[in-house]
Each structure stands twice: as C-alpha cells, then as structure tokens.
Predict the 3D structure of the following.
Amino acid sequence: MLTVQEAFACVMNTAVDFGIEEVSITQAHGRILRETIYADRPFPPFDRVTMDGIALNFQDYENGRTDFEIQGLQAAGFQQQKLQHNGCIEIMTGAILPDNTDTVVPYEDIFRNQNTFSIIKGIQKGQNIHQQGSDVKKGEALLYPGIKITGAEIAVLATVGKTNIRVSRQPKIALVATGDELIAINEEPKLHQLRISNVYAFQSVLNEIGVEAYIHHIKDDKETLHKEFSNLFAQYDLIICSGGVSAGKFDYIPEVLKELNVATRFHKVKQRPGKPLLFAVSDKNVPFFGLPGNPVSGFMCLHRYVLPWLYQSLQMNPVPVQMQAVLTKDVKFDKPLTYFIPVNVQVTSQGSLHANPHLTNGSGDFAILTSANAFMELDEKKDEFKAGEIYPVWFYKSL
Amino acid sequence: MLTVQEAFACVMNTAVDFGIEEVSITQAHGRILRETIYADRPFPPFDRVTMDGIALNFQDYENGRTDFEIQGLQAAGFQQQKLQHNGCIEIMTGAILPDNTDTVVPYEDIFRNQNTFSIIKGIQKGQNIHQQGSDVKKGEALLYPGIKITGAEIAVLATVGKTNIRVSRQPKIALVATGDELIAINEEPKLHQLRISNVYAFQSVLNEIGVEAYIHHIKDDKETLHKEFSNLFAQYDLIICSGGVSAGKFDYIPEVLKELNVATRFHKVKQRPGKPLLFAVSDKNVPFFGLPGNPVSGFMCLHRYVLPWLYQSLQMNPVPVQMQAVLTKDVKFDKPLTYFIPVNVQVTSQGSLHANPHLTNGSGDFAILTSANAFMELDEKKDEFKAGEIYPVWFYKSL
C-alpha cells in the first residue's frame, strides 16, 4: 500500500496539459494565463500630474518670481499644451505635464489673484509629477504564464490593451455517483436509501476554481458500468467517481477499469480517512480518481489529490499547496496511517494560523465539514500530536 | 476630514438588505444562505455498516460460536434483511445493518469455508457500525442564515433534500469610469490618453465574490454626468465610480450628486492612498462610492470600504474582516494619515503570516498590485513601523 507521499507523487506525475484557448478580458477572471504580458508603452506613458493646481518652470521660481500669470488650462484627456513664457498653466490630476514646465504646485499652496497665482509655501523642483516610465519601462514583462488572473492582473491586461488573452483551456470533468443506495435529491428516501450529495459538493468545489463538471449517476451493475464508463472515457478529460472502490461484493469498478484498458496506478493509500482511494489512467491518458463514498473521505481526497493534479494540469505556476499551522489540542492516532483531521484554522491576533481540531468519532460525519475549513495532515510515523506543534493544513474554505 | 475608522463606520451604518431569492442547489455555490437548514432525518438514517464483511449477533460469539453459517447478503441500497437464527449475513459498506445483528466483522478478520465464515481475530460488540443518529439527530439545525455556501454546505443541502434554497438576492452594481483621458481597451492611445482599466479590475473582484457588475464610461461633462447618473441611481443597487472626486476643475461629481439629491456622507479620508474617497447615499438609499482614479488607491478603497459594505448588505454572518500579520521590514511614514502599503503575505514554516512590504514611490504603480496580495493598514498615529510588529492586513488575493 502506498504512503500519502508516494500516492501524491504518482498522481502529480500523470499531470497533463489541457491546451490553450483565447478568451476576452471580461471572461478572463480566474483563468490561468498562458502568455507573457509586456508593457506596450512606458508607465506612466507621459509625465503625469498628480495634484490639481498649477504647473510652472522651477527656474522662474528660483529666479525669485512668486507671482505667475495664468496662461492656460491643462486637463486630463487633452493634448499637451506649452507654457510660452514666465507664468503658469492650471493643471488637473491625471493631465500630461505641459511642455516647458517641470514642477506642480497644488491649490492649497497657492493663492489666486485676478490673473495670477501667488505661491505661499516653499516648493521643490519636480514635485507632484509622476515621471514617464518611472513605474515600468516600455517592453518590460508584467505578467508571466502560469499566474491566476484576478482583479490586479485584469488592471494590467486592460492597461496594455489586451482584449483577448491566451489562457489554459478548461478541462471537461465527469463526476460519477455510484451506489444503489443513492437516490436523487428531490426524491423521498426509504430507510435504507441516501440522497446523492458528494458529487454536488465536488461540483461546487470545482466551480469555485472555475472549472465545469457534469454529474452522472450510474447503477452498481457491471454491464452498465462498463458501457457508461466507456462513454465517459471517450468524452471527458478527467473522471472523478464517488464510491464503489472499497472491497465490497458489488464494487465492480476495479474490474471494469481493467476491461476498458484503464491501468490502475494505485488502489488504497495508507491514510484515514480515504484508504480505498483508487487512481487509474486510461490508454488515452484520461485519469480516473475513484474517491471513497464516505463524504468526509471523498472531500479530503478531492482536495489532497485531485485539485493539485488539476492545478498542475492547468499549468499553474506555482501550484498552490499546503500551509503550516499550529495545532491547538493534543491528538492521538496510533494506526500506521497518515491521519487527516478536520480543523478550523483561524488567524490569531499575533498573526499565527491556529488549527482547532474537530475530534470526531471518525464516522465521516458530513456536518463536521461545515464547521471546519481545512484538513490537517498528521504523519503516519507518529502516534501523538501535541498542542503547539506545527503540521501542514489543506484548506477547503478560505480563511 | 474623517479617520479611516470613522469613514468605515459611516459606510457600514448605511448597509442595506438586498432581499431574498430562491435558487436551485446547482446555482447556490458562493451565495449567502438566508434560511436555517434542519436535518430531515437522523444521520446516519439507519445503523450503517462501515466495512465489507459479515454481520452477526454478538451473543452467539460470546456463547462460544466461531463458525457462522452464511444466510444471505445485504448490499447497500437494498431493504433491510433479517438474520433468522445463529449465523451471519454478508454485508457491504454503506448497507443497512441486518435486523437481529449488532456487530460487523471485516473480511480481513474472517476466513471463508464452504457455507460458513470462521472468525480468526477477537471482535467487540457493536464494531464497525455507524449508529443511527450518532452524527445528527432528526430536526437538528445544520446550517444557519448568513453563511457562504461552499462545497461542504452543498453536501449538507443535498443530503437533506433541499433542491431550492433561499439566498440573498444579488445586487445590481454599476461601475462608472470617468475621465476624458480614458479610452476603450481596444483603442490605440494618444500620448495623453490611458486605456480604461480600473473598472475592469473592480468587475473581476466583484465576480470573484459572485456579484455581477456593469461597466459604464461617462464623459467629464456636467450635463452628461447629471443625465447618466440620474439613470444609474434609478436602475442600480450600488454605484461605484472611478475618478472625478479630487478637487480638480472638471471634477463635477460632488456638484452633480447634490443636484440629484444624493447626500454626501463624507469626502476625503485621512489615508494614503485614497484620500479623495467620496461616499454618498441617494434619497432612495442607493449608495455611491467615488473611488480615486489612481489604480492602487481605487483598488485599496474597494477592498477596505466597498466589499465590507457589500458583505454586510448581503447579510453575511460574520462579515469577513482584516487579519493580523507580522511586518517583515521597517516602514516609515510620518504623515498624519493611515498608510495602506501593498504587502506580499506568506505563511511561514512556523505557521505565521509574514507581510513583506512593497516600498514603492507611492505613485500608484498598478503593476505592484500583481506582486503583492494584501494591503497592510498602518495607523495614522505612528510614524515608524518596525519589522516584527503586527498590523492588520486586507487581502485582495488568496494566500
């Protein structure tokens, strides 16, 4: 049986590349950039006025002049004017600095007379000007492939005039619920039945990272499974299956995968929950994650294995990984398995991530997931985990 | 001029309630729940088998029997069977525990003979059964109004059969770019022109929290502004304007708001960047945020003021707020203003949030935003901020 690290390495080694597509800037949010973005001109593109007031030539001021004749007005969005001789031009924030001026004096430091402004406070040469190219030189690289596009990147893309952007193509993902005990959400369950829930949770998690996933429910019947899976492997980039991978009589999936030439890379991992995890790859390189049907197990495996595989396959750089957090209560777990415990991580007033473990009966209580926000990964080699010690956490909700 | 705390309190005091709408479970992701969700039955709903193996009556084992005749098979999704007399029933994970049995022995602890299983390892009464109602009692509250619906909550909603869910109605938001220097993204700028970018960045940020926003570009002309704003206040729940709020000659917005009976609550805040921030509320209670046109200023004000107002108005409970982080470099800022500095926050190997400040020229360099992920808020009352000290950060990207 593989360790968590071995299983994870095996999964990551099979990452693919979904390819590239072009989207418009208004659709680019959350997508992974696949080109380098360069400055099409310097930033600011011109000497930019940063205060409302007047622009003048500092030499005049240095020569002793304090009264400046108003020769014009330079507003943002208008062509550059020129100061003809001693005097000033009224200027507005965002405007281009008028030609033959080099210093901006804000309204609060001047006094208006009939046709002149008097300077009432000491000034410095070049003040209140955002110099051309002082932020970014023309041709400078601003964004690199692999970053996730958020608001800040959209501002850059718009500024350099990128209306269409090359991003990673989104994979088409199948979410398969198996289990004859499962019924539709809108049905009334008999005593021995349960409503389908895991795949809806998975769909929501995948939506959150901007990926579409389509739900299928397949009966635990070998022929049906064979036929349906054959179709799914032909149509999808990734198949995530919930249930049907433990060692039960009706857990036909390992067999069906074999018939379909889908090679099982591993089945079972030294971990709790999530021990029955199955990972396979088809002859056309379509991966199959068989997640345990238990809600907490499946949810953990999705975040610990499937999402990193997806991030890698979307060519994210860097791939988001676990963070370290401080355990706040002692935890004992004496099995030779890596233990994933639901924790509620909060930032303390001292800026530390503190992880409060939810000591459950280990039953896979789905309700526990809503009061926690991460899984803490506790090493198989240890049995006792003390308050104050630091271990990795995998978030499934933001802080 | 208001302090940041005063301005923030003023903004939060005007929070509204956008009302409630019903969405289907597949559309509920990221929405704010507005009803309490109860367990429609106990969880698990029946004594649920947690291992593949056999179910038997512990009394028989205690009486010395080690060989159990196979009397049937109980799979998940099938009606409950009954053990008739001494013996066992083969059972699968997820199945209902057969009547007249109380203990489950996994395959690894039994040995199969012709028609019987022999027990080859000590067993305990009640083992490997997830007891009915042990996680949740029928009628227990599972989710409360105000929470954000993510994957974990979707699992709960599906489990209790909620196909339609009451959530906060999404506001309709107008994003207004003003400034005659601004041109469309796909146009080639003249020297004194800039492409519209801030409102696209704002749109992306709002999309990230699941809210739609519509972009308008209005010329800096008093009559046009009056007419267009009059329409916007009639159509939208919230208006966010970029630019036009500093004291320039062509900054008509404060005047136009007055004409439209939109009461300015504050104009200018003791902060850098973002000093010109304007906040107003119409006679129909539609708020107006006038954000500075400088990209970094506007972006900061959006996250520090507008998003908390939105979270509050969406009835989120709790409203997400700032977190504390450790400053990693000395920062000096001797103006009597709260200083918002872009920082790159990372979690250290010790589980601490460390904020690495970007010491910029204060010019509003938009490119800086892509290499940082938060703003650190440095108090106006201090001038020196030392490495190792702890201050609040407002994230605009996830860690």
Observations:
- The helical segments of chain B are 4-13, 58-62, 151-159, 198-208, 222-235, 253-259, 295-313, 368-371.
